[in-house]
Amino acid sequence: MEPEDKDTVQEPFTEYGVYSYADYLTWEIDEMVELIKGKVFRSAAAAPRRKHQEVGGLLYSRFLIHLEGKNCKVFIAPFDVRLPVKSKKNEEIFTVVQPDICVVCDRSKLDDAGCVGAPDLIVEVLSPGNNKKELRNKYEVYEESGVTEYWVIHPDEETLVINKLIDGNYVPSRLFTHGDIVKSDCIAGFELDLEDFFEKID
After folding, report:
1. HSE, side-chain direction, 13 A CA sphere, residue 188
2. Distance (Å, rounded) from C-alpha 42 to C-alpha 12?
3. Which residues, in sequence order, are bridge partners of residue 164?
4. 173: which of 87, 120, 162, 196 fits an S-S bond (Cβ 3.0–4.6 Å)?
5. Which residues partner with 70 through β-bridges?
6. In the predicted model, what is the mean pLDDT of residues 169-191?
7. 17, 34, 68, 146, 177 from 154: Cα distances, Å
8. Residue 188, exposed/middle/buried by CB under 10 A (0-12, 13-18, 19+)?
9. CB-CB contact of 38 with 94 (8 Å)
């Protein structure tokens, strides 16, 4: 009889199951995973690339400075965002994501475990580990959950697209890059000069 593969024995889930946040809380695994509509998505095994980290860290610091003394709070991954559909019970939540950055202005959505409900703004910084299915599914759940602005940054191409929720559907901006100054509609007064921003990334 062949010995069982060690990794298989330790695996708390399979790609074919449907899992809830209650299941998610029981897993003891080293890598970051997200749940999107009950399906498990693993992050790339390797740590994010340096440029990804620099972009995320610099943008987080810009939000942090801007929001000092204001009601909204900014968080950086790893930070669990639970997106309930009908119920906030752990066993009835099937989407748990860890956006690179999120801004939450309704503090009633915050608890010791993270955020339950849609943040006002979410930023994802693309990396080679992102797969198209994951990105498409995240776009859908952010739209369905009511995330007002969903920013997608491509660190290598140094571009940004802002998806704004209008009448329940995302309307994407044009592709922003060097020379553009972008503004957030949902975070009052926040502007980002992309020329200055990307020039600070080595």
Report:
1. 5
2. 13
3. 149, 171
4. 162
5. none
6. 97
7. 31, 21, 27, 23, 10
8. exposed
9. yes
Distance CA 18, CA 146 (A): 23
Give tens-digit pLDDT for 117-167: 999 999 999 987 676 777 888 999 999 999 999 999 999 999 999 999 999
Structure tokens at 134: 């994951």
d(CA 15, CA 66): 41
CA distance 49 to 121: 23
| 3-class DSSP string for 29-65 | CCCCEEEECCEEEECCCCCCCHHHHHHHHHHHHHHHH
Between 80 and 39, the higher pLDDT residue: 80
Q: Give the β-pairing of 181-183 and 33-36.
A: unpaired
Structure tokens at 152: 């997608």
Structure tokens, 159? 């571009």
φ/ψ bin of 194: left (φ > 0), alpha (ψ from -120 to 50), beta (otherwise): alpha
* Per-residue tokens: 108: 């009633």
Q: What is the rounded distance in angstroms from the CA atom of residue 141 to the CA atom of residue 57?
A: 25
pLDDT surpassing 90 at residue 33: no
Rama region for 167: left / alpha / beta (φ>0; ψ in -120 to 50; rest): left
Structure tokens at 61: 């610091």
Structure tokens at 47: 């740590």
Question: Beta strand 121-125 with 149-154: parallel, antiparallel or unpaired?
Answer: parallel
Question: What CA–CA distance (Å, rounded) separates 158 from 156?
Answer: 5
